[in-house]
Fold these 3 entries.
Entry 1:
Amino acid sequence: MCKDIKEDISREDINYTYLATNSKKLRIGIVGGGRAGFIKAKSFFQRGSYVEVLSLEFIEDFNSLVNINLIKSNYYREFIKDKHVIVIATNDKELNLTIKNNCEEEFKLYIFAEDYKKSLAVTPVQRNLNNITFAVNTKNSNPKGALMLSDRMLEIAREYDDFISYSSIIRKNVKDIVEVKKEIINFVCSEDFKYIYEKEKDKLVLEMFFGRDVLNKIFKDL
């Protein structure tokens, strides 16, 4: 029985290419005022995107979202033209397919809420720390599984957050030290150097390997 289940799951032949976008520059259009539309509207809005929702009816939850433009109307094609991402979330199957076809003709990224396999894009679980952001998705639509995994990954990422900030500053400061730039970046961005950093021996070790002049340039902002 377990073997059969595994074989069924493996038939999901979907490959994703992830592209991080600047949320504050994204214009999101959502067609559908139900629960699915509300969840997507809230998620994009909380990340700073501009959101418009088009529907003849809206569930009461939308009243909690201020500064989101709610348009009470039937779907019209012009609605998608000035948007980067379209969320298709109506309860009308024929209308959903019409919007999907319009999105493809207009070269829009679209999320097909009714069936993720018909989507051009998906919204993975996202987690943010001070210096790290990452997203988790599954190939066979398992949101709870993605949430479970993201929480575990967040625990691991927390152990690296401060070090990523530290190593990022070093990376910026060595850009003009052309002769040893690559060597320093490779040396610093490693588990071994993270250990040295945590033992507060980072400056000593860097001076031993690269000299005092390079050390002063590296730590000019630290």
Note: The CA atoms of residues 127 and 151 lie 8 Å apart.
Entry 2:
Amino acid sequence: MKVIDQALLKKVIIERPRSSHKGDYGRLLLIGGTYPYGGAIIMAALGAVRSGAGLVTVATEKENIPALHSHLPEAMAFAVTDQELLTEQIAKAGAILLGPGLKDNELGAHLVELVFERVQPHQVLILDGGAISLYTRLALPLTQAQLVFTPHQKEWEAMSGLAIEDQGEEATRQSLSQLPPASILVQKGPQTKIWQQGQADYYQLSVGGPYQATGGMGDTLAGMIAGFAGQFLQVSLYERVTVATYLHSAIAQELAEDNFVVLPTTISQHIPAFMKKVQKDT
């Protein structure tokens, strides 16, 4: 098991050059929030923007856009049914987060198939929530994009064929061979593990707890992963995903000192200050 320590955090979260601009910190496309799960994509967008993503565009139900903008005017948004604009935005994105609040229906299947058809090798594709279920059910052909999967235990059961009680270290290690080469797996659970296909070792969180058992927690994490994927290019994608996952639970643990439960949106509010603290700590 690899250790997530202060050295790794500081290796990833580096100071921004004074000459930089928003284009240097990732062009993200987030797809999801189909009825009745509009809040999921909003929480993902909050996690992405507050993690430092430079440009965030959200494709969601048209009726969901006013709510998104009331929470996050920094994000751009358009109707997910606008096929021409969606195709254009897929091509422009450096990282695509597909799945928060995406319903497993005809529209959801079409969106997953479209992204897999259009995504390119230089792009990062993060599959979360509904996109994981659809990916598993549709048995899509492999894509050359850099893939990140963020399943909870039931979703990993469907992906791997492992019952929850059988999702131990060795069984998961063997199941990784089913994933496309170099895929990253964020195996969410009481002790979340972060794996990369082709590597025997993994990172495991030492932070977090039951105060995170709230709807939307995974959506916020997926947004943070997308935010980190679009920046900090001086390190590997695996390290970026690991540090984003760690910060999500570390912030929650700190907040839990004074709160019985920790809401996903509260975590998002504290991301920038926590990242600054990591950068300043010696």
Note: The chain is about 45% helix and 15% strand.
Entry 3:
Amino acid sequence: MTHSLSLVQARRLALAAQGFLAPPRQGVGAARLNGLIERLGVVQIDSVNALVRSHYLPLYSRLGDYPRELLEQAAWGTGRARRLFEYWGHEASLLPLSLYPLLRWRMRRAAEGGGIYGQLARFGREQQPLIRQVLQAVHERGALGAGSLTQRTLRAGPWWDWSAEKTALEWLFAAGEVTVAGRRGFERLYDLPERVLPSACLDHPEMTEAQAQRALLLRSARALGVATEKDLRDYYRLDPRDSQARLAELVEEGALVPVRVQGWTHTAYCAGEPSAVRGRPVSALLSPFDSLIWERARTERLFGFRYRLEIYTPQHKRVYGYYVLPFLHHERLVGRIDLRADRRADCLMVHAVHEEAPGLDDGALQALAEALRRLAAWLGLAQLQLPCRSPVAGRLRVLLVESLSDGPA
């Protein structure tokens, strides 16, 4: 029997799976933060720093005010404090250590020239002497960044203007021969896995590709709540052929249950029988790289919200702004807020506020004002400014008047 879900039920399953409907709690410690990341299974890393590095935001959206040092310790700390590793999960990602054995097959494929960008694969075939030389330098010198190796004797290509040594490190990283020990600013510091990761990760019995892919799809299903095959494969960026074969196996054994969702044209799946989820009022500003919304077609199906990044769109062609955060309020995406942290002025700048139909009512606008105040405080910014001219911005400005400096009216 195929279960049927209303759109409201599907949305609640998704929000609960992503950690948004948990009862509010006071205080955030390492155990709570690590538990949330284990639940999500992946946190995407992005270099854009218009507000704060994006990997900090998904945890803030769910936990509220938390010390960013907790994430840094989990990601780049030493000893028992380290609970995460960097790898290609959903793009560049922070992942729980429990997933390391599930991604060894991806490392093996990368070492054989598969599953990575064509330019990097070609470099791996053609530049093995340099790659071995760079690996030897890591072995001898310990954690180091590409800048300490760069000689600019070769060029890797036009994409990022990487040096040959940087490209060698990235090939070694994709192949699992080095990992990220820490970061200096935003620069990766690479070291040998055995000097960074717990032996339990490295000594875990090898899994076949099929075993690991099934486990990743199950992790995706638990993290998403309800999702189509394409949604599930996108979470850890599996190939369609692999994903479809593993999905059929999981359905046959009963680990994934097919469901019909109101308005969806493709079959969806749940990890086990779908259960009723009670709603809870929640408001949050979401990173553009939040796992709730990063699969844009699914975001549109769940929330009726068409979302596209405009960071790389020329300014005169942008519709909503440079760094736009969707605003989640009472289980709907009700607005888009273009935000920037002006650190020199010690100010959170609200460059634009856009309403979604049917608009931001008084309750949503009050919740948005409170969310902006809290975000500014968490970022350590003393002021809020709304240098935008729109009716909804005017209404918001009234609510924020006590927090605003004398910015443009």
Note: The longest strand covers residues 332-342.
